[in-house]
Write a structure and sequence with these properties.
Layout lengths: L8 E2 L28 E9 L7 E10 L2 E6 L10 E4 L4 E4 L1 E3 L18 H16 L2 H17 L2 E5 L5 H11 L2 E4 L2 E2 L10 H14 L6 E9 L5 H13 L3 E6 L4 H10 L3 H7 L7 E5 L5 H10 L2 E4 L1 H6 L8 H6 L4 E3 L12 H16 L7 H15 L17 E4 L12 H8 L5 E6 L2 E5 L2 E2 L4 H27 L3
Helix pairs in contact: 1-14, 2-3, 2-14, 4-5, 11-12, 11-13, 12-13
The protein binds zinc ion.
Length: 482
């Protein structure tokens, strides 16, 4: 661990904050209301993830409303008239950013494991989704995942799923930041009979959530192997018109490239570039099978990629995404868990550990993707991939107050020599004690404050009974002689 490596940043925070020495009061504050007194998270080791990689022992983060007002080092005078959250002994990190997933699929977790991607999707997931996925399913599945993500330190997740209004409603209820919105796929989906209908309805969502404090509008297309290029192009254009994030699975499986060559006369990345789908705010999920030319194309476009190492490994993708090459080329690379049915958890600490080790393993080089690089991927990298790096991803004045406290005072994390090493290789989501999203405390003492967790689990068990019935019926019908 090092001391502060750059000058203290103390931005103007309004006249209410006279800077005159240490503050008093130590009770944990109530969730912040907009008009509440500023909150000082004081005494922890602040891992800022700013450009310089500042780590401030005994530092403080001043939160005013929904934003970070100042970062203070150990010796800086503390403002008066604030509520104080004692972070002594804890690590204070930016909220983690999960750049790719399908949150509602928590209700399908463990349903069909240990199968190849196309078998898993086409014989298990798609038939069950066609029958079961409805607004309530999506709401409760997303809410359940939001609890899991918040409790393990994720404050922003990017989602691709059906019934986006219900995804957004769950995220807003849980008070987690979500990149979500309408999507298209080239066959009848649970929410729309055709991609054209989905696109026609999409502006309603994009307009309703244009300025929402937590929901960042997005348009997604499932993939080129399920969705014709002209439909993908229309979705990308709509996203661009609304300055929304555009998400698509790309180059996840070895068959995609040949399929795209046959259908479009071009590879996956080339085809996406040809219709203007690559730009800042476009996220290519997986991006495993990329040529050097593809990486150069993505880098020059400003698009980002979502690296999902555990999903790729679990689905037997036999090579690793070229993450080190993409980073070297300047591509924003974030980390994603993918859906809970293909991982099978949403803990980004596990994802960081897997990412760091996977690339060392396949390259035979332990210096590839060092811990700090991987932690940056899970924070600023994800923010950049989503085009949200001016709002989230680091602890800096002016950014949204998405902040996580983690307690390293347990046997598995003691002693602590190197912060990033512990964060990537040794910590896990259960070390998280406190989470703020948009300035509000949503997890305290490891307990989520915004959601009735028992009720969410009760609902999930109810959906689980329906899923079992459908799976048995689908299995029985697939065995009937045709
Ligand atoms: Zn996915």
């Amino acid at each position: 661990m090092s001391g502060p490596r750059k000058p203290i940043v103390l931005s103007p925070v309004g006249a209410v904050l006279a800077v005159v020495g240490a503050v008093t009061g130590c009770a944990l504050p109530e969730p912040a209301a907009d008009d509440a007194a500023p909150l000082l998270i004081d005494g922890g080791t602040v891992v800022a993830m700013d450009e310089a990689g500042s780590i401030l022992e005994g530092g403080a983060v001043l939160v005013q409303g929904d934003s970070i007002a100042a970062i203070l080092d150990r010796d800086a005078p503390r403002p008066q008239g604030v509520r104080r959250l004692d972070a002594t002994g804890q690590l204070v990190i930016p909220g983690l950013v999960n750049v790719h997933g399908h949150a509602a699929m928590s209700l399908l977790r463990g349903l069909a494991d240990d199968l190849p991607l196309m078998t898993w999707l086409q014989q298990h997931i798609f038939p069950v989704e066609a029958e079961l996925v409805a607004p309530d399913f999506v709401y409760w599945g997303t809410l359940l995942s939001s609890v899991e993500m918040l409790k393990s330190g994720t404050t922003t997740f990017a989602d691709m799923y059906y019934f986006p209004f219900d995804v957004a409603r769950a995220a807003a209820d849980a008070h987690i930041r979500a990149v979500a919105g309408p999507g298209v796929i080239g066959f009848p989906a649970p929410d729309f009979a055709s991609p054209e209908e989905s696109l026609a309805a999409a502006p309603e969502f994009l307009e309703r959530y244009r300025d929402h404090p937590l929901v960042v509008p997005s348009v997604s297309a499932h993939a080129l192997y399920t969705t014709p290029l002209n439909v993908v192009a229309a979705a990308a254009e709509l996203a661009s018109d609304y300055e929304a994030v555009f998400q698509i699975h790309a180059a996840e499986d070895a068959t995609e490239e040949a399929q795209s060559q046959e259908a479009n006369g071009m590879g996956v990345v080339e085809a996406l570039a040809s219709v203007g789908a690559l730009r800042r705010g476009t996220v290519l999920a997986h991006a495993v099978y990329l040529s050097d030319e593809d990486i150069a194309t993505i880098a020059s476009s400003g698009a980002g990629t979502a690296h999902n190492p555990q999903s790729n490994m679990k689905l037997g993708i036999p090579q690793a995404a070229p993450v080190a090459l993409a980073l070297a080329a300047g591509v924003p690379v974030g980390l994603g868990t993918d859906g809970p049915a293909s991982n099978n958890d949403l803990d980004l600490f596990g994802e960081m550990d897997a990412a760091a080790k996977l690339h060392k393993f396949v390259s035979g080089d332990p210096s590839v993707l060092p811990a700090e690089t991987v932690f940056r991927m899970a924070t600023m990298g994800g923010a950049r991939a989503l085009g949200l790096d001016d709002r989230i991803g680091s602890l800096e004045p002016g950014k949204q107050a998405d902040i996580v406290l983690l307690d390293p005072r347990r046997a598995g994390l003691t002693p602590l020599y190197a912060v990033y090493s512990h964060l990537v290789y040794a910590a896990d989501g259960s070390d998280v004690t406190t989470v703020l999203v948009n300035g509000r405390i949503v997890v305290q003492d490891g307990r989520v404050l915004t959601v009735d967790e028992d009720e969410a689990m009760r609902q999930a068990r109810g959906f689980g009974d329906h899923v079992r019935e459908v799976v048995e019926r689908v299995a029985a019908s697939s065995q009937e002689p045709s």
